[in-house]
């Protein structure tokens, strides 16, 4: 026969007058739970970069563009794509994009448009720089025939920029945004990634269009129609729809055709001023070319990272 033992519970009496003794440290084991809602720090970083680009785009629409502002926007775009490349190398990114191969193919097509557009831009700028150097030699020799070729080159690059803008209009930003909202995400990380990629596509189009439009408008012909001349006379010689602020300020205020005419009749001091304007314009163009080359390389690397993901899924 087994005896029954009663278990007694002893509660310590708390004496308020007794000095409190230091309680022994009791370690509690807490089981860690890995939740799918935790996003990678790179996601937060690229969101901040996208917000900076969105703010830049809204500000550039209401203020005149300068060489400094357009270069700043392009630098922000380069940094964003470099962050995107790191994100595309994460295992969770590979897992997400693996389940959407058709979307990855569309992304590759649009990234190819970006790469082609910036590649053609580099070629156009290189040709313009050659004509610009020849024009400076012609101004020193007061050879107006070469100056005419330079003016034609500026009009040509303006039309080429219009074509590049139309190419970027074909980028299906809306489709990428719809994909990020209509498709049911498997996790919060999945949803964040798809929204981030769609936003990167959107800001890439915005900054690129701002660049190409800025160059195109700056080098466009200044010849006014009769209607525009009448409107200018009524407004005291000023446009009322901010047309005067379109383009990139340093390029728009460069050497006009009126300064390149009748070179043989101009004095030495006037010719020196024209050459100084030409050198300033050359520095501005070279500065834009340098930063766009970095964006061009970043776009290529982003497309290569996507191409590697598509290759792994096959």
From TrEMBL:
Gene Ontology terms: biological process: root development; shoot system development
Ranges of compositional bias, category Polar residues: 10-24
Region listing for Disordered, in residue ranges: 1-27
The protein's name in its UniProt record: DUF241 domain protein
């Amino acid at each position: 026969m087994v005896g029954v033992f009663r278990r007694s519970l002893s509660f310590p009496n708390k004496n308020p007058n007794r000095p409190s003794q230091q309680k022994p440290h009791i370690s509690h084991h807490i089981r860690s739970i890995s939740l799918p809602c935790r996003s990678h720090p790179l996601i937060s970083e690229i969101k901040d970069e996208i917000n900076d680009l969105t703010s830049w785009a809204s500000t550039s629409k209401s203020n005149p563009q300068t060489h400094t502002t357009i270069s700043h926007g392009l630098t922000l775009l380069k940094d964003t794509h470099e962050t995107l490349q790191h994100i595309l190398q994460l295992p969770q990114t590979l897992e997400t994009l693996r389940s959407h191969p058709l979307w990855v193919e569309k992304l590759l097509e649009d990234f190819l448009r970006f790469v082609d557009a910036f590649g053609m831009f580099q070629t156009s700028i290189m040709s313009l720089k050659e004509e610009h150097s020849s024009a400076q030699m012609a101004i020193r020799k007061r050879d107006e025939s070469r100056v005419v070729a330079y003016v034609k080159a500026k009009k040509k690059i303006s039309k080429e920029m219009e074509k590049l803008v139309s190419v970027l209009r074909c980028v299906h930003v809306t489709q990428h945004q719809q994909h990020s909202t209509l498709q049911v995400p498997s996790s919060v990380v999945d949803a964040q990634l798809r929204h981030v990629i769609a936003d990167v596509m959107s800001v890439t189009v915005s900054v690129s269009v701002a660049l190409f439009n800025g160059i195109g408008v700056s080098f466009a012909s200044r010849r006014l129609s009769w209607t525009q001349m009448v409107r200018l006379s009524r407004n005291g010689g000023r446009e009322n729809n901010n047309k005067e602020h379109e383009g990139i300020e340093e390029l728009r205020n460069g050497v006009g055709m009126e300064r390149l005419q009748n070179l043989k009749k101009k004095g030495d001091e006037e010719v020196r001023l024209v050459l100084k304007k030409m050198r300033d314009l050359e520095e501005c163009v070279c500065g834009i070319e340098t930063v766009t080359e970095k964006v061009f390389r970043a776009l290529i690397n982003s497309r290569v990272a996507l191409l590697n993901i598509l290759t792994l899924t096959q």
